[in-house]
Design brief:
six-stranded parallel beta sheet, Rossmann fold, four-stranded antiparallel beta sheet, 2 domains, alpha/beta
Length: 304
Amino acid sequence: MKNKKISKFPIPTLPGWRHYYDVHFYAGWRIQKNEVKGTYRVLSPTGRKWKKETEEECMAVIYERRERGLSPRNSHLVIIVPGLNNLLSTFSALEKGLKDRGYETLLWHFASNRADTIEHAVRLAKLIDRLEGVEKISFVAHSMGGLIIRALLAKNHAWYERFELGHIVNIASPHGGSFVADLVSEQPQFSGLFDWVCGHAGYDLTTKGAQALPPVKVPIGVIIGGTGFKLGLNPLAGQDNDIVVSRESAQIELAADFIQVKGSHTLMLWGKETVNQTVYFIENGTFRHKDKLVKPEQETKRKS
């Protein structure tokens, strides 16, 4: 259990810190709610915004586009769930790689440090339950995003009856906790800063917090960064790591496949091998282990 309460006062919107989270998505268009003010806005695929007072007003904007012919590009949706305070631009290469293969993608925008992992999972479930034009859903998650997916799939949801569950990829997710979160949160001189930066989600990133979350119940493809040697990028871990997450912590018992891509916790998201391995797993349910740089064959492009 968390031993103290984190206040919800407005904090500066520094890189990766957001006040809005997605509550509805259709064909690249999204409705977002402001975590602090409770107001809504519509966000187009090009970034244009319409600020509204109610969700109903936002839905009217999207329905108008639907009447003009707006529809999803593919019934197979890949939901990308970022980690704590991730810059959304960090996922540009991953999202492009999936779109180039014909998938509809949803890079979920959410106020990552304003709720804990369980609450994020509840909010994502509500968004999924409202999806239209979708038949199959796959997930790609980075860091804390993997814990959110883990909590999401631990519950029985009504949308299980509506959508086929595709493949799931976790990239550098601390299923066993992050040694950095342990170190910082346990130091009195840093605990206040840890709470300010990580907010409600910080505890879930520690070893105790991560292990207290619901267990993984579905096969997941695991990608971890690091060096591939005994010692990793952060000497404090005492083993191979990507600066934040150790190789051991990223592994899970119910892993469909596991592969290491050399790189740091965040920068690896831009790497060609990370992108290609992710796309290949979404298509095939396994990684390619033979080639150093994986390039999915164009002729196997998924149609649905």
